[in-house]
């Protein structure tokens, strides 16, 4: 009897879809469960770093992402109270180290659509909408998922199950994998407007504003443009009533206080969310594997969350396909967990926390030390290159690649 090579995937976001795409191309049968009636098209993560473009480029997706997104070669740090530019960094300094020395601002729903177009041609990949995993069991040869469907609860079996079902992952919880870390005391408020911050104020497509009272991120996405839309991200009081924080009067006051203009802002989208810094205790438990937000979550400053998830998907899919199709040792899946968990802690968590602390520093002396360090780094080509290697997640990818099967026994 031929062994079951089917991989079950929970979650139809870009991480789950990327796993399905890569596994499907390798000839692996895939069944993907998406709990919603349709794929989300709300504005979420957009920044795609060079290290992630490398794995997406290997899958032939970058050209389409560039067509539907925006190329953003530079990013800036500003001192919000004085209105002065502190430092600017240009990814072109990484030319020769990566085929993608830039960032592409492509909203994650657009990246998902590009993947879905490819998946539509794959008969070995089945996507089931309104299917939500509610429980699971596994033994030495298979994993069984109980799935809530429009026709009632059904059981699906496969060789492995990938949990790509987000920060509240049912797969992770059902597998009793601890989600270690903490929750930030403030929430993040996202306001999206067509106001052109580049034309009116000279900000580039990715700008970060340090402020002792109220930091801000400001970046541009293509949306349905041109001309595109700009997203601003602010800290928000965790104890405040959500309806108050999202109300027109408060929203307008927030933007006017930060970026004054003569008329009210046109706000096309507003959202408020709680922010966590957490990493799963393991990314593998038997025949269950975690990727993306199911495995790690972090604050959005620096745009590392989805990038880390897509890098998870590329790493995991290659190893899982080798195990299923080429009889490679299952130890490769433990290596996946070690590689990706290590860099999630050493780089994604460390860097995203440092990014936030840099923007929110309150003491004048600390703020000036931060600014002085940024200025000196930007002015020194080697320091700037090293800084960009880290922010572009290239250092992280190279670190993951350096971890081998020999390290599992260490």
What does this structure look like?
A 7-stranded mixed β-sheet has the order 6-5-15-16-17-14-18, covered by helices on one side. A 6-stranded mixed β-sheet has the order 8-2-1-12-21-20. Strands 3-7-4 form a 3-stranded antiparallel β-sheet. It contains 14 helices and 22 strands. It has helices at 14-25, 50-58, 62-68, 108-119, 170-174, 197-201, 242-245, 248-258, 305-326, 331-360, 364-379, 381-391, 394-402, 405-408; strands spanning 7-10, 30-34, 47-48, 70-72, 74-79, 84-90, 103-105, 125-129, 132-138, 143-149, 152-158, 160-163, 179-183, 187-193, 206-210, 216-221, 229-236, 269-273, 276-280, 284-285, 288-290, 296-297. 44% of the residues are buried. 38% of the residues lie in helices and 26% in strands. The mean pLDDT is 95. By secondary structure, the chain is α+β, with helices and mostly antiparallel strands. Helix 1 (14-25) packs parallel to helix 9 and helix 11 (364-379) packs across helix 12.
């Amino acid at each position: 009897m031929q062994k079951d090579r089917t991989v079950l995937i929970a979650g139809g976001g870009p991480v789950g879809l990327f796993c399905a795409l890569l596994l499907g191309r390798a000839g692996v049968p895939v069944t993907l469960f998406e709990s919603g009636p349709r794929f989300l098209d709300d504005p979420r993560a957009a920044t795609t770093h060079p290290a992630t473009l490398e794995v997406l480029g290997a899958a032939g997706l970058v050209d389409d992402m560039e067509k539907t997104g925006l190329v953003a070669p530079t990013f800036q740090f500003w001192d919000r109270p004085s209105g002065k530019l502190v430092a600017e960094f240009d990814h072109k300094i990484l030319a020769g180290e990566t085929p993608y020395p830039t960032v592409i601002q492509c909203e994650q729903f657009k990246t998902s659509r590009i993947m879905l177009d490819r998946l539509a041609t794959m008969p070995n990949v089945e996507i089931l909408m309104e299917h939500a995993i509610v429980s699971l069991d596994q033994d030495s040869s298979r994993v069984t998922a109980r799935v809530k469907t429009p026709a009632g609860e059904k059981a699906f079996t496969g060789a492995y199950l990938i949990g790509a079902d987000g920060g509240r992952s049912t797969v992770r919880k059902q597998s009793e994998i601890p989600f270690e870390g903490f929750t930030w005391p403030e929430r993040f408020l996202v306001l999206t407007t067509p106001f052109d911050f580049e034309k009116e104020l000279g900000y580039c497509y990715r700008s970060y504003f340090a402020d002792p009272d109220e930091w801000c991120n400001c970046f541009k996405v293509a949306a349905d443009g041109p001309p595109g839309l700009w997203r601003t991200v602010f800290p928000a009081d965790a104890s405040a009533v959500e309806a108050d924080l999202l109300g027109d009067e408060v929203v307008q006051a927030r933007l006017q206080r930060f970026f004054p203009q003569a008329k009210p802002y046109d706000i096309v989208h507003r959202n408020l969310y709680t922010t966590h810094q957490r990493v799963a205790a393991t990314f593998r438990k038997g025949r269950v594997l975690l990727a993306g937000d199911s495995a790690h979550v972090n604050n959005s400053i620096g745009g590392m969350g989805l990038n880390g998830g897509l890098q998870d998907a590329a790493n995991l899919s290659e190893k899982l396909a080798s195990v299923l199709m080429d009889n490679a040792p299952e130890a490769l899946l433990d290596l996946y967990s070690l590689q990706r968990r290590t860099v999630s802690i050493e780089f994604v968590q460390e860097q995203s926390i440092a990014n936030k602390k840099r923007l929110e520093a309150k003491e004048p002396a600390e703020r000036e030390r931060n600014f002085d360090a940024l200025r000196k780094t930007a002015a020194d080509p080697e320091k700037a290159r090293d800084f960009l290697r880290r922010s572009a997640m290239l250092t992280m990818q190279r670190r993951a690649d350096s971890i081998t099967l020999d390290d599992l026994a260490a």
